[in-house]
Amino acid sequence: MSYHTYDELCSGLRLLCDEYPEYTQLLQLPNLTVESRPVYAVAIGDQRGADVRSAVFVGGVHAREWPPPDALLYLCADLLQARRANTGLRYGGAYIGKESIARIFADLQLILLPCANPDGRIYSQQVDPDWRKNRARNVAPNGTICFGVDLNRNFDIAWDFKRCFAPGKVSASDNPCHKYLYVGPAPESEPETRNIVWLLKNYPRIQWFIDVHSAIPAIFHSWGLDENQAKDETQNFGNPAHDGKRGIAGDQAYREYIPADDLSEVRRLSQLMGEAVTAVNGDSYEISPAFSLYATSGASDDYAFSLHRLDPQRSKVYAFTMECGHEFQPDWTAAQLVIQEVCAALASFAADVSGSQPPTS
Amino acid sequence: MPKKLRIDAPSLEELRDFLSVTELDMGCRPFARKRNERFAVDVVAEDADLGRLTARIASDIRIEVLEDLPPPQAKLRMTQPGNRYLHGQLPTGLGKKE
Description:
heterodimer; A: 361 residues; alpha/beta; Aminopeptidase; 8-stranded mixed β-sheet; two-stranded antiparallel ribbon; globular; B: 98 residues; alpha+beta; Alpha-Beta Plaits; 4-stranded antiparallel β-sheet
């Protein structure tokens, strides 16, 4: 066994949807990739559709992080098999009981997007294992041709980092030839980014979003833009009065607003996932706000959590980034353990939120 | 050959200051873990980066080489040609159904 290629991920999803039509719907997302590949997600649950309370799990945004797409395909397979057989699921010492599995299917729709960046994954697996971005063709100001946009700096949340942040305080680059951190020519410029945005906007009852990356290991919750504070609502990403002040660690001039109840809930859910990871085989993932050494701009988790502030009519989306494992491409034996950690964390998360009340705005 | 390095400092501020003028690959999100009252970040660097970093070391910054990373060719052999699902075998996952 080895890591899945993109073709295998697509074949695996199709086979699962053919085998379990009563619980699945295959979704081809509206945008082809830069290199014209289709991108697939799968919705699973007893009920599917735009009006069903949902959680989204995304993988493969960063191409070189090979375990997350495999983990999401396998999670899908595990959940479907357990649901039909009316069993629980065990990953090492982590156990999700059959009642929890049944409740996940009854109360939730899980939308799994195993590989958001197929072009990048193919390039990483066939040419350059260190490749992180998509495969967009960029022309630098001096005429140089370079490739790739960092999709996780391309979302429309403080995307214009030179305007939004204090100089030098954010992990982002406007250099089209930066190997890792190029933000792209415009917010949501990339079709792969727009596919995730499409999911978030076309399924208005999405209430949880987890973007699975590697390899720190850590579970991050809001915010990545700056340190958190729960007192001053005017200190928020959309307020231009604070442009140029964001991203400075340790200061009091600007911190990102998050209601205390929301912070408590995202911490609790992060901790819950961390405990499930530890139960698998004893590893310990750090639990932290996404802001640590530096701020990040244009990231998927911050974008998802920002949506209800921009449109108070829509569901609040609690958003996380799970950074699994300790290296980008562990050997397959080690990768299987990481995959089990991801599956245990996400299944435990789904079991918990499936019994919860909707977040309030 | 790329190396995995651990850079640590007594405080987050000192670690930030040291890293601020580097172009190191810190992964998805630049994140420091607290280890034994110090703050550490793991990065990937080439030999040339290591030389530049070592030359800049001041105060209480420490740099440890954790490992030499495998060459890219070794990574490219970690996927196999073909399609394991071509004959209709279902993905089964790694969880035990019990």
